[in-house]
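Bench notes, afternoon.
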Amino acid sequence: MSMDPTSGEGIGNRAPLKPRPGFFSDKRGGTAIEFGLLAIPFALLVFAILESCISFAGQEVMANATDDVARQLRTGQLQQNNVNMDSIKTAICNRLQIIVANGCPGLFVDLREYTSFADAATAGFTIVGNNIQLTQGGSNMTFQAKPGLAESINMLRVFYKWPVMTNILEKQMQSFPDGTTLHFASVTWQSEPFNDN
């Protein structure tokens, strides 16, 4: 039998098989395993970014709606005899419907007159269970919509129970036991000297 001078192996024979690598040094399928390990954290990161961005956009739309309605009250476009809880909610909801469900479920509005800006600064709220409880000076208040007359000091507070869409993030973002988080906007102003009629 002749020999191959370069390899020293027999030409007619097959080359000897190299030993197969062990389990831990075998690279076949490594990409699939790495993807499997990284897919879940990557998906969680993407969902967290999307959830945060949508929630932030909802908060900004609500803040803009609150500013717009407050400006109409401040300048006398919306006057005391034309304002009630339903009209204020409708005015804000019409501006929110670009990003929230039809009818704005979870929308709460409080509009009231104060004797001074210092008095308005004592207005607060707490979350009790699934409810928003208004407070001022240690006493509880109910939601109302009563703007003052010209040159009066007023505060408009808008609350929205925003649904958290990603179940995994619900526990980190929720403000209420029902899985929603609170969006809040407030504007305090002194009305312009418009005609009260």
